[in-house]
Design goal:
By secondary structure, the protein is mainly α. It folds into 2 domains: about 40-300, Orthogonal Bundle (Hypothetical protein af1432), CATH 1.10.3210.10; about 300-375, no CATH class. Helix content is about 60%, strand content about 0%. It has 19 helices and 2 strands. It has helices spanning about 5-15, 40-50, 55, 75-95, 100-105, 115-130, 135-150, 160-165, 185-195, 200, 210-230, 245-250, 255-270, 280-295, 300-325, 330-335, 340-345, 350-360, 365-375; strands spanning about 175, 275. Strands 1-2 form a two-stranded antiparallel sheet. Helix 5 packs across helix 11 (about 210-230) and helix 12 (about 245-250) packs across helix 14 (about 280-295). The termini are far apart.
Amino acid sequence: MNYLEQAKQNFLSKEENLSEYATKSKDAIRLKPLEEDLRPNYFRDIDRIIHSLSYTRYADKTQVFSYKENDHISKRMIHVQLVSKVARTIGRALNLNEDLIEAIALGHDIGHTPLGHEGEYILDEISQRELGEKFAHNIQSVRHCMYVENKGEGLNLSIQVLDGIMCHNGEMLSNKYIPMKKDKEEFLKEFENSYKDYAATKKCSPMTLEGCVVRISDIIGYIGRDIEDAISLGKIKREEIPKEISDILGTTNKEIINTIILDIIKESIGKPYIGMSENIYNALFALKKFNSKNIYSKSMTLEEKEYYKTGMNILFNDYLNAIEKQDKTNIIYEYFLNHINDNYLKNTPKKRMVIDFIAGMTDDLFISELINHNHKMQ
């Protein structure tokens, strides 16, 4: 046995003792063949994600609060790393495939817009008006990984990772997550249908238990951290968390994460699903409602929301006009279309190109472009 064969065997040795419900690397499905090397399939997917340009842009994308003078407020990069750590903790305790978990977790918000969920709401309005299609960050994340990244070639991630990204929606809380078996065709059909019937996709279940772990870990990764950020900014006080919640989950991010993780492990170990006790589920559901009312709905002023809504519509029209006139000096060419393959350019509607570009923008680039437009109009 040569050193490469030994190394490959070492990579895969831990899979020999995984749970009977875990997903093995040998079961990975891809849209295009991939030449093997010493790395297992999902390990390779992690590498492809962290080396992508979209992953780099996480560092300057809003999690909840935009443009606050506080260096300790979470950006989306921090969120995906927290989700990855929470999910891998649960996955290791349940003896699942941590490589698959990490790939899904690190890629799950690749398609998120600038300005967090407010940016997503605005771009969704534009997409429905201009294309008659729903825009949602989990679906855009899959689209970016399949059709936009790598100069339009896509990352050729495994279907198991893409499906976990598509079905990660942490806003949809449940006390039990059961994997739903799918083949490649079923995944692709679910993905394509999401543009017209997003309500169905919000309820979709991941095809792997690892995907289910990431789905619940998404909310664990943000629920307590968002509270800490809101307290740091003076948006809420810790004692405002209702006692019926804090008595069960705690009041700090550390306490909340620890309590929920231990409960999930207790309720899920040795089982073909991911579950929570009724007590913890009810408290987490109530905390999510508390955060929504006291944090998320107040993350921006009405004036800020209107400014950004007007601005995103202006930039959409500017970029679309640039494509129609083939203005190669425009930033959508300089940063995007000049660096993408002919297949994307020939087969992608112009309005979809603009949405792909805006979805990929960082907060700083979006604001800079808006300021530049306003200066030109003066």
